[in-house]
Amino acid sequence: MENKLLHTPVLLSEVVKIMAPEPGKMYIDATLGYGGHTLELLKAGASVVGIDQDADILELAQKRITGSGLSANFTSLHSSFASALDGDRLEPSKYSGVLMDLGVSSYQLDTPERGFSFRHDAPLDMRMNKDLAVTAKDLINGLGKNELIELFSTLGEEYAAKKIVAAILDARKTKPIESTAELASLVARNVTRSKSHLHPATKVFQALRMAVNTEREELKAALPSAWSKLTSGGVLVVISFHSLEDEIVKNFFASLKDILEVSDIITPSLDEQYDNRRSRSAKLRYGRKA
Ligand SMILES: C[S@@+](CC[C@H](N)C(=O)[O-])C[C@H]1O[C@@H](n2cnc3c(N)ncnc32)[C@H](O)[C@@H]1O
Hints:
By secondary structure, the protein is an alpha/beta fold. Helices cover 43% and strands 15% of the residues.
């Protein structure tokens, strides 16, 4: 039976409309996740190469696609998208579309032992790819004062970074910070968010996750490679959840000479935002190759 709760794809109908899948066309889903977007491309008769650096979700997506009887035109690739798209492993100028739906899936957030969420108590891990050497615990206990302030201010846009870092350094004098719950309650004790509905530790967790998985660096490296895979008329679609990522995408499209069409930001409808809270911060941009 299909478990719909593993991840709900955002901006699904918009993505399908922009990518216009049909039999004979080939696509790269660089962030396969639970395969929500890929399934729609496959249902339309297109072929898809699905990349994910998380081996667990890749296996679940593969099962879902096989269970739907759509695996004949699907190939999976366990890799970071920057390295999968680099070089000629995937043939240049061959694909009608590349999709990047950035960040983590609900499956990852809701699996306690992955250590992504302040809602569950687990070791502070946050690696999407378990082969990565550095965990969130290593960063929180190993970085110096200024590095942590920089991390939380930049990637987390956390205005209380200095106060939070002072509390972290103080706690570290006694023992290392090991778990998501320890970090979440330390942040909650030290900051008040009178007007926000977010958990006080949301931004700190987001910053750590982005640093552990070098998310901005991955995106910067992957965009030109993704572009090189497109046929003339092919489209690169990027869904981001953070203004710093959106900025990278916007600047990338602005830097291109061989671009036919570039979109403004597309955001989820109010209905979608209501049905799927996670979609609220989603921003889609696409560019079509000349
Ligand atoms: C938001 S989810 C994608 C959800 C998917 N579109 C769906 O509908 O199920 C993002 C996925 O991309 C993967 N991911 C994030 N950054 C990645 C990277 N640099 N390389 C490969 N996979 C990445 C994550 O492991 C996660 O499974």
